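Key result, reporting period 2: structure in, sequence out.
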C-alpha cells in the first residue's frame, strides 16, 4: 500500500534525494567508491562540501561577511554552542515551545537569561507578540518554527542586538532575510537531509567577543577556519543535503517552495476548520505553522481519536500522531511532502466524518 509520510523528523525527503543518494552509495562522483567509504579529504568530497555551501548561499541569498558550516551534534548542541560563543553576561530568549525551553536552559549555564515572553501557560498555542528585549543582552534567541506545537514566527523580529534563530523545522521552506540574523542554525533532518548534520549560518563579526575559554571543537571559529573539515564531517548527510538543495534549486528555490507550502497548509487547515470532528490547536491563522499542522478532536467527538488514528493508518497515513505533550494529531508538511499526500489526508478526514 502507498504510504503517506507525515513524520515530524526525521521526515520525508524528495525522491530525487533518495535516488541520488542511492547512486552515490554505489558510486560517488565517478570515483568508483561509495560515498560511505570515501575520505572526507578526497577531492570528490571537498567538491561536494563546497558545492553544498554554495547552494545554501545561493538559495538563501547569504550576504558577504557570513559563513556556512556543517557540524554534528544536532540542533541541540547549538543550544549550548550559541551562548558559549556569544554570551558574556546576559542573553534574551523568546519561549515558544519545548525546543525554545531547552535552548534557554542551556544558556543559563553561561549567565543571566531573560525570558522576554512565554506562551507556556497556554500550552504554547500562540506566539507572544508585545514584549521588550533588554538591549544590554548579548543576543536575542528565537525558534522560528515550533515543531511540536505547530506555531511559526513568520516575521523576522526587529531588535537592535544580534538575533539568533533555531530554524530547524522551517529552514528552506520560505525566503529568509539572513542579514537580519547573526546566527541561524538548523538540524538537517526536517527539511534537508537524513539525521546527522546541522547547518549553521554565522555572521563573522559577532564571534570572538567572549572571554571564556571555549573547547576547540565547540568554537565556531575552528570550523569556519577549517571549512567544516576540522574533524570528520558527517559525509553522507552532507552529500544528501547537496541533493536536496539541487532539487530545491531546480524547482525554483525558496520562493517557489513557499508557494507550494502555503497551498498545502491552506488545504489542510481549511479541512480542519470545516470538518465538524476536528479543531485546530492553533487558533490564530497568523501563528499557524506551514510545516507542522496540529489538530485534535472537537468537543463531543473525543472518543473518536483512536478510531480516526486507526482509520488513517489503514489508509496509509504514517506519523500523524501528535507529540505526547499535545496529543491529537500533527501532520508535518515539509518541503518534500507532495500536495497529493495532503489531498489524501483531507480525503481520509472527509471519509471518516461521513462514516462517523
Ligand atoms: C528537531 C528540532 C530540534 C532538535 O534537533 P536535534 O537535531 O535532534 O538536536 C531543535 N529545534 C527544533 C525547532 C527542532 O524542530
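The corresponding designed sequence is given below.
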Amino acid at each position: 500500500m502507498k504510504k503517506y509520510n507525515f513524520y515530524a523528523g526525521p521526515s520525508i525527503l524528495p525522491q530525487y534525494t533518495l535516488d541520488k543518494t542511492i547512486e552515490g552509495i554505489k558510486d560517488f562522483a565517478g570515483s568508483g567508491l561509495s560515498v560511505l567509504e570515501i575520505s572526507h579529504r578526497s577531492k570528490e568530497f571537498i567538491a561536494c562540501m563546497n558545492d553544498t555551501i554554495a547552494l545554501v548561499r545561493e538559495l538563501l541569498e547569504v550576504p558577504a561577511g557570513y559563513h556556512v558550516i556543517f557540524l554534528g551534534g544536532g540542533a541541540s548542541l547549538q543550544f549550548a554552542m550559541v551562548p558559549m560563543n556569544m554570551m558574556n553576561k546576559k542573553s534574551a530568549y523568546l519561549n515558544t515551545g519545548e525546543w525554545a525551553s531547552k535552548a534557554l536552559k542551556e544558556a543559563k549555564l553561561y549567565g543571566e537569561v531573560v525570558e522576554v515572553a512565554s506562551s507556556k501557560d497556554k500550552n504554547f498555542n500562540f506566539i507572544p507578540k508585545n514584549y521588550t528585549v533588554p538591549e544590554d543582552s548579548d543576543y536575542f534567541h528565537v525558534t522560528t518554527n515550533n515543531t511540536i506545537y505547530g506555531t511559526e514566527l513568520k516575521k523576522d523580529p526587529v531588535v537592535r542586538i544580534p538575533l539568533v534563530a533555531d530554524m530547524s523545522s522551517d529552514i528552506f521552506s520560505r525566503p529568509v532575510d539572513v542579514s537580519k540574523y547573526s546566527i541561524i542554525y538548523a538540524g538537517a533532518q526536517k527539511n534537508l537531509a537524513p539525521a546527522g548534520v546541522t547547518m549553521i549560518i554565522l555572521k563573522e563579526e559577532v564571534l570572538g567577543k567572549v572571554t571564556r575559554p571555549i573547547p576547540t571543537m565547540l568554537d565556531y571559529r575552528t570550523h569556519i577556519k577549517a571549512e567544516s573539515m576540522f574533524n570528520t564531517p558527517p559525509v553522507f548527510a552532507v552529500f544528501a543535503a547537496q541533493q536536496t538543495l539541487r532539487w530545491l534549486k531546480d524547482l525554483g528555490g525558496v520562493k517557489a517552495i513557499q508557494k507550494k507550502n502555503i497551498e498545502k497548509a491552506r488545504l489542510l487547515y481549511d479541512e480542519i476548520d470545516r470538518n465538524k470532528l476536528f479543531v485546530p490547536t492553533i487558533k490564530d491563522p497568523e501563528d499557524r505553522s506551514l510545516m507542522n499542522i496540529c489538530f485534535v478532536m472537537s468537543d463531543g467527538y473525543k472518543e473518536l481519536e483512536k478510531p480516526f488514528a486507526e482509520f488513517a493508518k489503514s489508509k496509509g497515513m504514517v506519523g500523524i500522531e501528535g507529540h505526547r505533550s499535545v496529543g491529537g494529531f500533527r501532520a508535518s508538511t515539509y518541503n518534500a511532502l507532495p500536495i497529493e499526500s495532503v489531498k489524501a489526508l483531507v480525503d481520509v478526514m472527509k471519509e471518516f466524518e461521513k462514516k462517523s
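DSSP finds nine helices and 14 strands in the chain. The radius of gyration is 21 Å. This case is discussed further under Risks and Mitigation.
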